[in-house]
Amino acid sequence: MLQNQEEIGNIIKPYYGEEAGNKLTALLKEHILIAGKIIDAAKKSDKAAVDRFNKDWYRNADEIVAFLTNANPNWSKQVLTEMFYKHLKLTTDEVEDRLQGKWMEDIKTADVNETHLIHMGDFLTDGIVKQFPNKFK
């Protein structure tokens, strides 16, 4: 999963530069690492740690949104924040279902989250195309 974050950072380098791509990669890797900590704490039924890491996760999402919306005026801070928060909620629901052995719910939530992430990717792509139309002729 960390390699995926590297690849996402690399995708934006032609548009926003090496430094921006590396910054996004770092933020996205932090996102994945925090998720891993949340899962580990949830497996141990350590609610205090889950709550602490969850706050970090939302802070990280806010940092990603701030980074992206500062880079591209076509990305609404409100819309992107709502998208990230929905992704975090869906991921949390998926983990809870999995840990409780609710396999059908887990699969359904994973499918919804996948569709949501594809929609997020489309939203981000549309913003890049609008900002750099000459690169897409």
TrEMBL record:
Keywords: Transferase. GO terms for molecular function: transferase activity. This is Glycosyltransferase. It comes from Peribacillus asahii.
